[in-house]
Amino acid sequence: MRAVGLLYDHFAGDVLAVALRLTRDRALAEDVVQETFLGVWRNAGQYRASVGTPRTWILTIARYRAIDLLRRRSRNPADELVPDAPNLPSVPDIWGDVVTRLDRDLIASAFTKLSAPQRRAIELAYFRGLTHREIAAATATPLGTVKSRVRLGLLALRQHLLAAETVPLRPVSATQKTMQDRPRLSTAA
User: By percentage, how much of the chain surpasses pLDDT 90?
Assistant: First the structure.
């Protein structure tokens, strides 16, 4: 039990960070931390140093606990929100679909800004699941060139996506832009 306490003292912050990242809810994340260290205590005999570090093992448990908790909550979210409520008609939540569509459009737009060789290398690696070696063989391109194209393409993609995040969601009309650029009259005489 003392060993689990030492592990908790050392890794609880990392576990909480992983849980918060996945659940986006402090209370749920704290539940994940508790369940994680309970699992560590119960399954301490299953840890294998040859497979990974204690940190990796514990964070993996945390990740799975968070995913399990989210799945349990998503199965019947109405029961958790209003436990004694009669069967209410469910209203579909389309926000997830909207966000996914916006993300997909943003990524597709950024993807078109890559050079053709970079785009092809990334398509083969990430959409077809080919290794760098397989891409090199399929395209008759040196392995180093394939690795460079993938890496540089991903960096360029990241730059395009970061730049797109700074763009306002609502486009400014030409009239609004003209009004914003107009010098203001000073009220001081």
Answer: 22
Burial class of residue 56, CB neighbours in 10 A (0-12, 13-18, 19+): exposed
Note the pTM of the prediction, 2 decimals: 0.41
What is the tens place of the pLDDT at every residue in 44-91? 888 888 877 888 888 888 888 888 888 888 776 555 554 554 555 555
Question: Do 69 and 35 touch, CB atoms closer than 8 A?
Answer: yes
Structural contact between residues 68 and 31, judged by C-beta atoms closer than 8 angstroms: no
DSSP state of 182: S
Nearest to 28 by CA among 56, 62, 76: 62
DSSP state letters, 80-140: HHSTT---PPPPP--HHHHHHHHHHHHHHHHHHTS-HHHHHHHIIIIIS---HHHHHHHHT
